[in-house]
Write a structure and sequence with these properties.
Its cofactor is a divalent metal cation. Its main location: cytoplasm. Its EC number is 2.7.1.23. This protein has two domains: 107 residues, 3-Layer(aba) Sandwich (Rossmann fold); 133 residues, Sandwich (Tumour Suppressor Smad4), CATH 2.60.200. The protein contains five helices and 17 strands. The protein has a six-stranded antiparallel β-sheet with strand order 6-5-16-13-8-9, with no helix packed on it. Strands 12-11-10-7-14-15 form a six-stranded antiparallel β-sheet, with no helix packed on it.
Length: 253
């Protein structure tokens, strides 16, 4: 049973109040010294916590004090140590993004949900798609396109009519956002170890931004995306409410 707990909370008053109550009940250590990290907030704060603690050995157990809470467990002050002891662990790998801007600068980022390319102005984006060095689509005219992990497949990917992926699937979802040409193209399923490259056509006339889990990079000329197996994030869920069950349940709602 984990004895040392670190409590992290979003800025929301509801989350801050919960953090104070839990510290008063269970005590607290720093995230660096913790056996487990409890994140209090919504999915956005959970993603932030996972990014900020990726170098630490402690798994993260989220409790929902936000809006959506797909990655979170229900909130309760009682029996926390017993819940942590019984929790099931899911391990996910992030996506690695390398973007080249139109001025030659390079940006790198990691994303647990998805990396998306989105039009930056009023005109549709024109994208060229290459997978593992082979040109697969000469021109995709669209509002954008994204590559999503299984863990992120129920987020923006699903809203863009992409597929929900089982958490243990060794695939990535490549999904178009409001495709104009080819009009009915919805995307593709790719092996997890695939490298996807987007090249932006007419970037001055049709500027495009890249977004990695909510962090935006404007005026990109090309973006390369691949899974990063060297980084593993450990997330804890209450029994029967893990990511696999949530991904299945989401398809029947």
């Amino acid at each position: 049973m984990p004895q040392k707990i670190a409590f992290l909370a979003s800025r929301a008053p509801l989350a801050q109040t919960a953090r104070a109550a839990l510290i008063g009940r269970y005590g607290e250590v720093s995230a660096e010294d913790a056996d487990v990290i409890v994140a209090l907030g919504g999915d956005g704060f959970m993603l932030q916590t996972l990014h900020e603690t990726q170098q630490l050995p402690a798994p993260v157990y989220g409790m929902n004090r936000g809006t959506i809470g797909f990655l979170m467990n229900s909130y309760a002050e009682s029996d926390l140590r017993a819940r942590l002891d019984a929790a099931e662990e899911a391990v996910i790998n992030p996506l690695s993004m390398r973007a080249i801007h139109t001025d030659g600068r390079e940006s790198r980022s990691l994303a647990l949900n998805e990396v998306a390319l989105l039009r930056q102005g009023p005109q549709a984006a024109k994208l060229q798609i290459t997978v593992d060095g082979r040109l697969r689509m000469q021109e995709l005219i669209c509002d954008g396109a994204l590559v999503a992990t299984p863990a992120g497949s129920t987020a923006y990917n699903y809203s863009a009519h992409g597929p929900i992926l089982p958490i243990d699937a060794d695939v990535l979802a490549l999904t178009a956002v409001a495709a104009f040409r080819p009009r009915r193209w919805r995307g593709a399923l790719l092996p997890k170890n695939a490298t996807v490259r987007f090249d932006v056509s007419e970037p001055d006339k049709r500027p495009v931004m890249a977004d990695a889990d909510g962090t935006s990079y404007r005026d990109v000329a090309s973006v390369e995306i691949r899974s990063e197996p060297s980084i593993s994030h450990k997330i804890l869920f209450d029994p029967g409410h893990g990511l696999e069950e949530r991904l299945i349940s989401e398809q029947f709602t």
